[in-house]
Write a structure and sequence with these properties.
By secondary structure, the protein is an alpha+beta fold. It has eight helices and 19 strands. The chain binds uridine-diphosphate-2(N-acetylglucosaminyl) butyric acid (EPU).
C-alpha cells in the first residue's frame, strides 16, 4: 500500500538498538517484525525500528530437550526449517507463517493446534526507556490467543531481542487439527509435518509476495455457552471448538462465508476466495478500502449472527 514512514531504523546488535533508542528518545517509535500483521492506515510520522539480528544458537540440552536461543530478527520459518533439518520437534506446525522470531513471542503466533507459547521458555528484552535487559518467563508473558503482555499492559515498553524455545529430540507430532494427519506423507517427523503444513498453507492462503495480505484479518470469536446453544439451534451445521472454560470458538471464516463475502471486493480490497478470513490487496487498495471492507464484513456478521468479530491485524 502506498504509505510511508518518516524513518526506518535497523540494527544488528543489542548495542546498536540501545544507540537508536538513545538517538530517537522522545520520538514516536514502532518496532515491527516483518510487518506481516500490520495495516498502516496512513503515513507513519515516526520511527519504525526493525531488528537485523538473525542468529540462533543451542544453549544446551536436558535429556530429550534442546534449548535454542534465537535472535528477534530471524525469520521464524528459517529457524523452523533448520530445526526440522536437525529433527527437532516443537515448532513444525508453525511452518510458513510469515514473520520473525520476535513477533512469534509478541503475537503468540499459532497454527494447526500449536501456539508459540507451547514451546517458548523465556523472552529476552530491552526496556525502551532505559535500555536495561529484562527476561520474561513464559508465565510472565501472559500468553493468550494471538496475545501477550507485550500487546497489552507493556505495549511499546519492551523490545524483544531473543526468544528461547524448548524443542524435543523425540517429540510427538501434533496432527489433530483439520486434515493435517492425512496430509502428512509417510512417518510423521518434524520434517514431514512441516512439509504437510506448507502444502496446506499454500493451498489456502495467498503468497504474501504475490498477493498482499496480513494473513487472517479477524480472530476467531469465542462465545459463551448460552449464545452458542442459540446459534446451534438456528444453524445446526455451525462448526465449533469447545474450549476448556465452557465457551466455544467459532471459525470466523464460516460466519463470513455464510454472509456471502467470499470473493467480494470493495475498492481494491477483496475477501480472499479460498479463505474468507483473509482480506487481500487485490488491486492497489488504499488503507481506507481495507478498513471499509473489514468494517462491512464485521457489521454483516454482527447483524446476522449477533457475534462480534475483531481484527487480528494491528491498525497503525
Ligand atoms: N471455513 C469455512 N470456509 C472457508 C474456510 C474455512 O467455513 O472457506 C471454516 C471451516 O469450518 C473450517 C474452519 O473455518 O473447518 C477453520 O478453517 P482453517 O483451518 O482454515 O482455520 P481458521 O480458523 O480459518 C486459523 C488461524 C490461522 C491458522 C489456521 C490453521 C486465526 C485467526 N487464524 O484460521 O492463522 O493458519 O487456523 O491453524 O486463528 C493467521 O493468524 O494469520 C492465520 C493464518
Amino acid at each position: 500500500m502506498d504509505v510511508r514512514a518518516a524513518v526506518l531504523a535497523e540494527y544488528e546488535s543489542v548495542n546498536e538498538l540501545r544507540e537508536l533508542l538513545e538517538k530517537y528518545r522522545g520520538k514516536r517509535l514502532l518496532h515491527i517484525g516483518q510487518g506481516s500483521n500490520l495495516l498502516f492506515t496512513k503515513d507513519f510520522d515516526g520511527i519504525i525500528l526493525r531488528s537485523r539480528m538473525v542468529r540462533a544458537r543451542a544453549l544446551g540440552e536436558n535429556g530429550d530437550e534442546v534449548f535454542i536461543e534465537a535472535e528477534s530478527g530471524l525469520v521464524l520459518d528459517e529457524l523452523i526449517s533448520q530445526l526440522a533439518d536437525m529433527g527437532l520437534y516443537g515448532l513444525e506446525n508453525l511452518s510458513y507463517i510469515p514473520g520473525t522470531v520476535g513477533a512469534s513471542a509478541v503475537q503468540n503466533v499459532g497454527a494447526y493446534g500449536v501456539e508459540a507459547k507451547d514451546v517458548i521458555v523465556d523472552v529476552r528484552t530491552i526496556e525502551a526507556a532505559t535500555g536495561k535487559e529484562r527476561v520474561f518467563t513464559n508465565e510472565e508473558c501472559r500468553f493468550g490467543y494471538r496475545d501477550s503482555i507485550f500487546k497489552n499492559e507493556l505495549q511499546g515498553q519492551y523490545i524483544v531481542t531473543h526468544v528461547v524455545y524448548r524443542l524435543l529430540k523425540h517429540g510427538e507430532a501434533h496432527l489433530d487439527y483439520g486434515n493435517l494427519r492425512e496430509a502428512v506423507q509417510g512417518k510423521p517427523t518434524a520434517m514431514t509435518v512441516r512439509e504437510a503444513v506448507i502444502q496446506i498453507r499454500r493451498q489456502k492462503l495467498p503468497e504474501v509476495n504475490e498477493l498482499g495480505s496480513a494473513g487472517s484479518f479477524f480472530k476467531n470469536p469465542v462465545v459463551p455457552a448460552e449464545q452458542f446453544e442459540t446459534l446451534k439451534k438456528a444453524y445446526p451445521a455451525i462448526p465449533n471448538y469447545p474450549l476448556e472454560n465452557g465457551t466455544y470458538k467459532i471459525p470466523a471464516a464460516w460466519l463470513i462465508e455464510q454472509c456471502g463475502w467470499k470473493g467480494k471486493a470493495m475498492g481494491g480490497a477483496r475477501v480472499y476466495e479460498k479463505q474468507p478470513l483473509v482480506i487481500v490487496n487485490a488491486d492497489y487498495a488504499t488503507p481506507q478500502d481495507i478498513i471499509d471492507l473489514a468494517q462491512a464484513v464485521s457489521d454483516s456478521v454482527k447483524q446476522r449472527f449477533g457475534v462480534t468479530i475483531r481484527p487480528e491485524v494491528n491498525y497503525i
